[in-house]
Each structure stands twice: as C-alpha cells, then as structure tokens.
Amino acid sequence: MGLFVHKYGGSSVADAGKIVSVARRIAGVHDAGHQVVTVVSAMGDTTDELIDLARTVTPEPDPRELDLLLSTGELVSITLLSMALRSLGYDAISLSGPQAGIRTDNAYGRARISEVDPARLQHELAKGRLVIVAGFQGLTPDEDITTLGRGGSDTTAVALAAALEADRCDIYTDVEGIYTADPRVVSKAAKLSEVAYDEMLELAAAGAKMHPRSIELGAVYKVPIYVASSFTDAPGTMIQQPSDEALMEDRIKVTGIAYQTNVAKVTVCGVEDKPGVAAALFEPLAASGISVDTIVQNTSADRTTTDISFTVTTDDLPQTLRRLSSMAPALSAAQVISDSSLASVSVVGSGMQNTPGYASRMFRILADGGINIDMITTSEIRISCIIGREQAHEAVRLLHRGFELDEG
Amino acid sequence: MGLFVHKYGGSSVADAGKIVSVARRIAGVHDAGHQVVTVVSAMGDTTDELIDLARTVTPEPDPRELDLLLSTGELVSITLLSMALRSLGYDAISLSGPQAGIRTDNAYGRARISEVDPARLQHELAKGRLVIVAGFQGLTPDEDITTLGRGGSDTTAVALAAALEADRCDIYTDVEGIYTADPRVVSKAAKLSEVAYDEMLELAAAGAKMHPRSIELGAVYKVPIYVASSFTDAPGTMIQQPSDEALMEDRIKVTGIAYQTNVAKVTVCGVEDKPGVAAALFEPLAASGISVDTIVQNTSADRTTTDISFTVTTDDLPQTLRRLSSMAPALSAAQVISDSSLASVSVVGSGMQNTPGYASRMFRILADGGINIDMITTSEIRISCIIGREQAHEAVRLLHRGFELDEG
C-alpha cells in the first residue's frame, strides 16, 4: 500500500464533467489499494474572475481581504470533487487549507508555508477516506487566511507529501510532462522522462509551468514529483535526485530551453556611487514583496555616479515604480527609466556545471539570429539572456536547435 | 458612543453598486461616532446557484460538503464589502463565521449556534475597525464548517449582538419593516412601528420574512431588533419587549395576518391505537431534522386503529415520505397519504391571550369566504388554519379586513 499526493490544476477541474473524471481517476488509485490525498486548484479561470470581481469594487483590493476572497475558489472545487467521489460510492472528505493544517506567514498574496500539521489528514486517512485538500491557501498565526501566490497549489501538494512522508507527489496538469522547450513554440521539443530537482528549479523559475517553490520543497524533503497529463495516460516526467550514472550522462548536454515573456527592466540612473546604495535601493523593494531578478550595475564615465538596472515581472512593475518614486530623492537619483517589453530566454542543464563554452555558444547562436542581448545572468546550471519580447519565441527555437535538442 | 450590529441580506449586496451603497451607510454610522459590526448574506441568488452547481455533480450532495461549499457565498460578500469600506478610507476587516467566534453543533444545513466567542470581534473593534462578519455559518467542535439554514444570517446578527451586548441589532432588508400582512397580497397592509418578540416569533414562524430563531435569541438576550429597508431611510419596525402600557393597548386587537404557502400534509392511516405510537412515528422524523408543525390524530370508527396527520414544509416532504416508508411496517400502518398543495394562514396578536372569540371569528370569516379549513392549530397568541394553497392570498385579505386591520 502506497500513499500518494495528487494535484489537479484548474483546467483539470474546469467543469462538472471534468471533476467527475478526476474523481474516477482517484477512485482507481484507491481501488488499487493505495491511500490518496488530492490537492485541487480553483475551477478554470475562477481565480481571475474573483480578482475581476474585487476590482468592480475597488481598483486596489486590500491584500488580506483579497486572499480571503480568492480562497473561496478552491473551497468550491474541493467540495464538488468530494461530492463526486461520494456519489461514486467512496468515502471522501474535503478540507480547507486551514483544516488540512497548512500554516503560513502573513505575506498576503504570496504567503510561504511555515508548517504543516498533518494530524487531521492522518486521522481522515486512518478512517480509509479519500482526502481532498484546497490548494493555494493557508492560515497565519493570527488565524487569517492567506494565499500562496500563482501556482501555489503545487507547493501545497509537495508540502503535504513531505509532511505525510508520501511515496510520491503527482502533479496532473494540461501538459504531458516537462519538455526540452515549450512544445507550442518548438515543434521538435521532446518530453523528458526524468529531470533533476536543480534543473527543474531553473526551468521552473525560467518559465516552465511548475511553481519553483514546489520544486525547492521537493528537493529539500526528497519528495519524488511526477508531472503528467490529467486527460491522458501518457507517461510523464519524474522530477527527482538522479542516480550517479544518470548524472554522468546528463553532463554531456543541455536539458532544456526556458523562457519568460513577462519581464520588465528598471534602470535607476545617476545614483551616487558609494557603499550601501544597492542595499538602500533593494531593501524597500524586498520589504514590499517585489522579487527582483537580474541586477546589473554600471559606473558612469565620471566615476561619481552609477546606473543600476534590474528586472521584475511586468505585474510587479507599477508597484516597483511607485516604491522607487517615493525613495528616489533619498538616493539622489537623476532618473528612473523602465521598459516593460522584454523577455528572458534560458539554457538549463546540470551538464553545464564547471564546463566552459556554453555561455559563449549561447551568445553566438543569438547573435547569428540577429537577436540583441540586453542583460545576462547566470547560475551554476543556467544561463539567461534578457532580450526583446517579440524575439523570444525565435530565440527559443534557435537555442533548441543550436544546442542539439531538436535531435531528441 | 453606541455599539450596533447591522445585517444586510442578499438583495442588499446583490452587485458592486449595492455593496458600495451599503459601505456608505455603515461609514455614516461610524462617522456619527458609533461602533458597527456588520453581518452580510451571500450576494443575490448565490446560495441557490451554489446548490445548483453541487447538483451538476450529484443529485444529493453530502451535507457536510454542501455546507463548506455554501459558506463561500458569504466569504465573497464580506470581503467585497470590506474592500469597499477600505476604498472609502475606512479601516475595515472581514471575518468568516469561524474567525468571528461562531461555534455551532454539527447539524449540517441547519446548525444551531452553541456559543459566540467575541474575543476577536472585541479586539478588532478596540482597534477602531469596522468589522464585517459572514452570516449563516459557523464552526463545529471538530473544526468543520456548518451553515445555519435559510435566513441564518439573521440569527448570526442577533447572536453577535447578544454576545457583544450591543445596543441594538438592525436587520436591513428589501422591505421597510413588519406589516400587518404581506403588502404584496393586502394593499391596505400597514407597517407596524413596534411589535413584541412573542408576536414576531409567531409572525416569523407563520411566514413573515424573519428567521424565527433570531427572534427567539433576541427575546432571550433582550436584544432590541430593528427591521428596516436597506434602500430607503423610511422608519422601520422595532421588535422588543413592550412596556406595560403598550401591552394593554395591544390587547384590544390582532397584530397581523401571516401565511405560508409551502405546506404539505401527511396522513398515516390505520396506525394501531396504543401508547407510544406517536413517539415511534415522530422520533425518527425529529432525528432526521424534519420539523413537524400541526399534528392531528383521529381515532377510527372501530376504535382499534387511528389516523395521524401532520404538516411539514414541501421541501421536507420527500425526505419525510422516505423515512415513513422505511418504518411504516413497524407501525403496522395501512397507508401513507400526502398532499403538497396546502398553505397556512395565521392570525397573530398578544391581545388574543385569554380572550375568547378570536378563533370562532376566524373560522366564520373563512367560511363566509367559501374557504375550507383542513386542519387547525393554536398557540397562546396565534390561531392557524391549513387551507388549500390557491385560496391563501384570498384568505389573508379576508382576515385582514375581518379583523379590522384594513383601517390601519
């Protein structure tokens, strides 16, 4: 008997028919003698619709209130799925995030899970029940409801798998697994049967459709994560720590090409060039929950001032500019310039570790394709370039071919 | 400085514009120097829509799952109202039933409030906040979500007023107050400026639009309840214990005429006429949460068997018949007959206490109108007749005129 955590995304539970299909799949796992905890997202576009509803009342909804509002989306989907299982003759129970013991900090809209108390989950599993848990939500120490941010249901699922010491966490979604590149962009993209946590983390952060925090959690707690389609039985992708042999083979090549099209660049010009300037700039942004990615600093010709550029998501750009305008005088900055028409493309692979030549090869491929590079950032197993958004798809195709991923 | 609990029903918060209107009204009370706790129902027909949604998955949704689903309706309306207040510049916070300290038994779908822990409410009020609370919902000792049944938000509001020792509980609705009869049926119906708890309890149980449990609670905890329109500033009706002088004046006449059109009658024929039969019949119905109203028992001609008739709401009829069919053999009943086309009309007034003649006058008025009486039930301050549903409106008009309420 195994214990599995399943996660179904919004498109997998978009209507009553799809919910009944998911119920049948879960029932099948139960019939095979396993215990199952299922995490679900809100139905279809519910979360976006609730945000739109809030905006009919106020252009900038209070974050605490918005989180309590958004948490209702998952309550609807878990109760319907539990009802569907019960109508098929299975003993099921739905639990909200708080009921499932998910505790978070109080960073509304992007809360982080601080703890999972699995007592209620274990109690219901011990009764032989199929347990359905609301993804994306948790409870603060003050007993207020939080949401975990976009894709937070993935994080919920992996956190529950870790807390319950489950055998595996299955993420069922509208794609069949993790590919060497977005198959909608690159027709020759190949499905990966296996990918390492650190590679997936870079792919996730760089645009593949998985929540990066869920991968981090999986890596820390060594939860094998299986990504597959909720609509077909095609084999998916297993995210786990590779065995040593697999690692050696991986080393010979790049794993995949990722991209993001929601990149905005902000440049703060004419900042006084002295110690502490970067901290003074980025601390208030971090305090506002704004996640800053690539950072580049150039000293000006006269060497007394400097320009600092960084990227944020286009969603975070308005708030970033507001925060900057309130502190610009303190930084004696001459000017703040922003460009919200950018994208990032990334080459990812653990085979790149300590192996020179990948970066220069990437720059050459982009240059030959007439694609201008605005900024560059690297990690141990990833090289990312910031480019114009309209060239993003072409860049992904060129890199996929250039790094010999087209051959499969 | 006063402390008021306001309650707004679903039609008062049916869309964003109406929610902003309610926010302005609450803000006005705050500006006048008062503390306000506002209880709201789900927007418009949300609760019915959620029930319909559940039925797309299963014809008979599990009660626990249905309650968790239905509880989302109020979470949407409280968060939107709180956002609206915040956008007007007021410090507001929304609280779910559980967050507001509302504890209930575990009778899903018709839970009763066992306790209100006002700690969080008082904490938020002490911060100078406008507190918005989800009506209709609470938390069981096992930390599961319950709903209080139709109209349960009224009960939430009065319970909070009692727990907070508020000065008054205002129920804002789509009518301007309590009338001597339904104004849609009787054009000469007059608004009552004041009504006693016990009279209102009979009017509420007999069809006026207030949740009877809220009136009971108000009477026990001596919470003055003010019923008025959420759309106009017209004076409403105060429900409270009348002063002695008012009581004396009330004694001279009937307060109002109430009616219900969702009445079904069930007759169990040929029941063995021996002690314990009625208990054997009604205990299982009570255990199923079915509320039985009028009960009549007739002994048959041969005096060995008896017929027992009783009324339930038409909503409860299918479940009642199912329960009866499973126990009929045990009761050696020959037959169960039901009629779901009935209504009740009631004459209510504390002036009827210990005063003969009201019942016979009611029967005469109905007889003169050609209306046949099927069953009769009385309380200290109410006489009700079960009649055919198609004659209900006519009966209300005849009784309103016959008891001299047309004069106002």
Characterise the protein shown here:
Two copies of one chain form a homodimer. Chain A is of the alpha/beta class. In chain A, 35% of the residues lie in helices and 26% in strands. Chain A has twelve helices and 18 strands. In chain A, the strands form four sheets. An eight-stranded mixed β-sheet of chain A has the order 3-6-2-1-9-11-12-10, sandwiched between helices. Chain A is globular. The mean pLDDT of chain A is 89. Chains A and B meet through helix 1, helix 2 and helix 3 of A and helix 1, helix 2 and helix 3 of B.
Element-level helix/strand string of chain A: EHEHHEEEHEEEHEEHHEEHEHEEHEHEEH
Tell me the overall shape of chain A.
globular
Low-confidence stretches of chain A: none
Reported for the largest beta sheet of chain A, the result is: 8 strands, mixed
> What strand line-up does the widest sheet of chain A have?
3-6-2-1-9-11-12-10
- The Rg value of chain A, from CA coordinates, equals 23 Å
Give me a quick take on this structure.
Chain A is of the alpha/beta class and 408 residues long.
Characteristics of this structure?
alpha/beta, 408 residues, six-stranded antiparallel sheet
